[in-house]
Amino acid sequence: MESNGWPEYTKRSWGFNRNFFVSNLLETLNEASLSDALEVLEPLVERSAWVAERATRQRPFASDQDVAQTLVNVILETEFPKRVELFRAHPELAGREASTGTMTAASTSEQGRLGLLNLSAKDARRLQDLNARYAERFGHPYIVALHRVPDLEFLFETFERRLTASSVEEHVSTLAEIASVIYARCAKAFNGATQQHACATREAGNV
User: Fold this and answer.
1) What ranges in the chain are assigned the alpha helix state H?
2) In this predicted model, what pLDDT tens digit does every residue of 97-116 receive, in sequence order?
């Protein structure tokens, strides 16, 4: 498998048209074995292979957005305790997993973009306090779609505001944030594969 999750046999001369290339990636995913399909889908949902496994049963996918929506629907349609289990599979922001280097590649990239892996002592203490208060109140880590967060101050303000929400409100907000993360990761996976193919094709043409 490639680092972007796509099998070796997706390396074909499919041209530069994104729609055409994505349709071939989808065809590959739709026809892949269960193990190959899971290798593509599992990184899109944080450490919750059961979501990817249920989604694969609903193949074929019509588009990259259909892949994302199917994953989201699996979560929305599952029972409450299983959703909470999914919430608890997520790492805290700049928490223990970050300090020990045990986050997934996707989470490491998302937290690193905002500088959460290299916080000042003051910001680290502030975030540690927010993490502890949130976990005590809601029973799982705070989850936010970091690709929509412009800077640390916005992150802190949003974190403080969500700490005042009711349990029901926060459950709904958390589901919405996870859905946004899945859509962003899915778009990145498909676009990344497309861009890698285009670069490889250009390099081959220059040989």
Assistant:
1) 18-31, 34-41, 49-56, 64-77, 80-88, 96-100, 105-113, 121-138, 152-162, 167-206
2) 999 999 999 999 999 999 99
